[in-house]
Structure formats: structure tokens, C-alpha cells
Design goal:
157 residues, two-stranded antiparallel sheet, single chain, mainly alpha
Length: 157
């Protein structure tokens, strides 16, 4: 069965969150690339629950993190523009399609913002001596909150 076409207009807050997420992610990636020559030969590659580095690796390992970060933010940004293809927790009908699509789009945009906060925190902690939990904890809380709110909205649609 073919799902109904998307007809609603994305809200201003959702567009703004999407743009800020992409801009801050791009700025973080660019800063990491520009600062790469100044990084020490060994950098933190893993952080424990306390936010302190507990594993170390070569400076070049930052490229893997940057690649994952770019793919995640880019992929989720693209996906957020196509809510019609999402896997929803309820049947999508003519009656509920636009509400489901909007809730799905908002869920992905907020999850993307939370993931970006986590990755920005990890990258900042690799480059600067900053505790990663300052970014990771709010990012994880944001992820759980986005998922909870999004699921409630979809079940109510």
C-alpha cells in the first residue's frame, strides 16, 4: 500500500534546529581539521562514564571520528527531509499521515541535534582538555527526551 504524499510545511523551529545542527557540526569538523597539525601524537580515543579519557591512540584516529560524525549528521539530516519512508509504530493512513510525518521529522531532527552534541563534545575533549560529559550527558538526555516525545506524538496521531 502506497503512503499518502507529504503536504505539510516544516515548522520554523524544526528548520532552525536542523540548520543549527548542520552549521555547528560543520564548524566543529572544520575546527578539528584546522587544529589537526597541533594535536599531540597520542590523543584520547575513548572516554569512560565519568567523561575522562581511558584509552589513547594515534592522532590520525581523529579522522575516523570526523568521518562517522559527518556521515551521521549528513545522513540524519537527509533522512529528516523524507518522513514518508520512516518505519512508524502505527499504521499510516490518509487521516493521520501528516501528523505522523511531522512527528517523525521532528523526532529525527531532535535526535540529530542530540547526536551532534555528543560528537561535538567528544571532538572538543579530544582537542582540548575538557571533560566530555559536559556535552555527552545533555546529548544523551536530549536523545531520550526526543525519543519519548516523538513516540508519544506518533501514538497520538
Amino acid at each position: 500500500m502506497q503512503r499518502p504524499a507529504r503536504t505539510y510545511e516544516t515548522g520554523a523551529v524544526t528548520r532552525w534546529i536542523r540548520r543549527v545542527t548542520v552549521a555547528l557540526s560543520a564548524a566543529t569538523i572544520l575546527a578539528a581539521l584546522l587544529l589537526y597539525p597541533t594535536l599531540p601524537e597520542r590523543i584520547p580515543t575513548h572516554f569512560g562514564i565519568s567523561g575522562q579519557a581511558d584509552a589513547w591512540g594515534p592522532r590520525s584516529s581523529v579522522f575516523l571520528l570526523l568521518g562517522i560524525f559527518a556521515a551521521l549528521v549528513g545522513g540524519l539530516t537527509w533522512l529528516s527531509h523524507h518522513p514518508r519512508i520512516f518505519n512508524y509504530p502505527a499504521v499510516v493512513t490518509e487521516h493521520n499521515a501528516q501528523r505522523m510525518y511531522r512527528a517523525g521529522e521532528q523526532l529525527i531532527v531532535w535526535m540529530n541535534a542530540a547526536c551532534a552534541a555528543i560528537f561535538c563534545g567528544i571532538l572538543v575533549s579530544v582537542i582540548l582538555p575538557v571533560n566530555s560529559s559536559l556535552f555527552v550527558v545533555p546529548g544523551m538526555v536530549g536523545m531520550v527526551a526526543a525519543l519519548a516525545v516523538g513516540m508519544v506524538r506518533m501514538f497520538r496521531a
